[in-house]
Amino acid sequence: MKTKWVRCIFVILCILVLIVIVNFMPTLSLKTDKMTELEGKWINVYYETEAEAAKDVYEYAEQETAAIAERLDFSEAPDVNVYIYDHQRTMQTKKYGLIAPLLCLDWYIGDNVGTDVILTSPANPGKVHTYENNKYAVLHEIVHAYASVLNEDVDLWLSEGCALYLTNGEPFYKEYIDQMGIPTYKETCSDNPLIFSNCGGYTYAHIYIEYIEVTYGWNAVLEIIRREDYEDIFAKSKEDIYDEWVEYLKAYYQ
After folding, report:
1. Does residue 84 contact residue 45 with C-beta atoms inside 8 Å?
2. What pTM, to 2 d.p., does this model score?
3. What is the per-residue pLDDT across 75-89, written as a single tens digit (0 to 9) for each?
4. Quick one: which of 165, 170, 188, 219 has the most CB atoms within 10 Å?
5. What secondary structure does DSSP assign to 124-138, as a single string?
6. What count of other Cβ atoms lies within 10 Å of the Cβ of residue 88?
7. Whole-number Å distance between alpha carbons of 145 and 129
8. CATH tag for 27-150 (out of 3.40.30.160, 3.40.250.10, 3.90.1300.10, 3.40.50.720)
9. How far, in Å, CA of 22 to CA of 97, rounded?
10. How far is CA 19 from the centre of its chain?
């Protein structure tokens, strides 16, 4: 009887492992069949069939990335590749596998995998975005790629905050505090993208970076991304900086 149970458990485990392997197979290669390459000074772009939109993204990124590199203290361009997929579904599976479309992430149009950027083509922006949203998102993801070079394990809050601050973060208004509340310290420490989104990270995280620059200088921003050693950089704990940021929000000028 015991042997039978052991066999059943073994079979179940094998099936689960097989399911996981099959799910993540699309993530093994970011390239899809017959992708075309656009080679540039700052980035290389690979795209499927939406050539006009891909060239628009490429030209925009080539023009703007130099300023991002300078801001993040890069003297040479890291090896950044941008993969543009015709459909949002394909892009999502390149990060989370075949299960991705079942997660109902309509807002999820781009990401990075280290120094590789994956993006939904602006030609087919999805249900909740526009052509321009998707086009400009490429620079946001390039900041993530650069941040991963500075620190491959950088906190999500810092990486997203920096990307929003340098690219497409929306203006902040103090009234947002009453409307949605300030993310808790615990939420700002989470590396779960769903928690980040649900707690208002896209509204607040870039103001965290703004606070650090205004109060401690841009070099402090770069150092905290590189090392995340709050005690050494600020002579304060991470939670102390969070508390200071909360007071900064409450006294915000607009």
Report:
1. yes
2. 0.89
3. 888 889 999 999 999
4. 188
5. S--SS--HHHHHHHH
6. 24
7. 22
8. 3.40.30.160
9. 8
10. 26
